[in-house]
Amino acid sequence: MIYSMIFQLIICDKYMSLKSKLESLLLISQKPLTNKELAEFLKVNWGEVEAALLELTKEYQEQKRGWQIIKNNGKYQLVTAPENGKLIKDFLHDETSGELTQPSLEALTVIAYRGPITKFELDRIRGVNCSLIIRNLLIRGLIEENFDKFKNETYYTVSLDFIRFLGISQIEDLPDYSKLHVDQTLQEFLDEAAKNQI
C-alpha cells in the first residue's frame, strides 16, 4: 500500500514537471512545435507529451486562463485567449506606434551591427531573453527573419525600412561598422556560449 502511494507520488511529480517544461517551451518558442520535437528535446515518450498537452489544454479552458494551446497539422502553440483579442490588438497598436523602449533600441543596435544574428546570440549579448523584443521589432518592420534550413537556425537582420529611416544607403555606412561587426572578443564569447548551450 505504502509503495503504491510513493509510486503514484513519483509519477504525479514527473507529470507535473513535464507539464511545467512544456508550458515554458511553448511560451518562449516563436514557432509552433510538433509533438515529436517536444518529446525529443525533453527526452520523453511522445505519448507522455500528448497526454500532458491535452491536460494543459483542459486546465486552461476550465480555469479561463489568458492563454490557450492550439493544435494545427500536428503542431502546438501557446497563444492568447480569443476573448482577449481586442485587448491584445489595442496593446500591440500602442506598442508599434509608440517610441521604441531602451531594451528594443539596444537589441536593434546589436542586430544592426552583428546581423545576421540568431536569437541565441542576441540573448547572450544582452543577457536576457529577447523573444518579445524580436517580435515587436518584426511587427514594426525594423528587422527581418530568415531561416537557414541547413543550420536549422533563424537569423535576424535589419530591414530596408530601417536603413531607409536612418537615411543611409547600406548598413555598412553605420559608424564604426567594420570594427564592431567583426569584434573578435565578442565572437569568442559567442562561440564559447554556443559550446555550452544546453
Defining key terms:
three-stranded antiparallel β-sheet, disordered N terminus, 10 helices, Arc Repressor Mutant, subunit A, 2 domains, 198 residues, alpha+beta
Explain what the structure shows.
The chain contains 10 helices and 6 strands; from the N terminus they run H-E-H-H-E-E-H-H-E-H-H-E-E-H-H-H. It has 198 residues and is of the alpha+beta class. The protein folds into 2 domains: 2-82, Orthogonal Bundle (Arc Repressor Mutant, subunit A); 99-195, Arc Repressor Mutant, subunit A, CATH 1.10.10.10. The strands form 2 sheets. Strands 1-3-2 form a 3-stranded antiparallel beta sheet. A 3-stranded antiparallel beta sheet has the order 4-6-5. A hairpin with a 2-residue loop joins strand 2 and strand 3 (75-80). The longest helix is centred in the N-terminal third of the chain and has 27 residues, at 2-28. The radius of gyration is 21 Å and the shape is globular. The two termini are 40 Å apart.
Q: How would you briefly describe this protein structure?
A:
The protein is an alpha+beta fold and 198 residues long.
Secondary-structure arrangement, i.e. CATH architecture of the largest domain: Orthogonal Bundle
Separation of termini? Answer: 40 Å
CATH names the topology of the largest domain as: Arc Repressor Mutant, subunit A
Approximately how much beta-strand content do the residues carry? 5-15%
Tell me the strand order in the biggest sheet: 1-3-2
How is the topology of this model organized?
Elements: H1 2-28, E1 33-34, H2 35-42, H3 46-62, E2 67-72, E3 75-80, H4 85-97, H5 102-114, E4 117-118, H6 119-126, H7 131-140, E5 143-148, E6 153-158, H8 160-166, H9 177-181, H10 184-195
Antiparallel strand pairs: 1-3, 2-3, 4-6, 5-6
Helix pairs in contact: 1-3, 2-3, 4-7, 5-7, 6-10
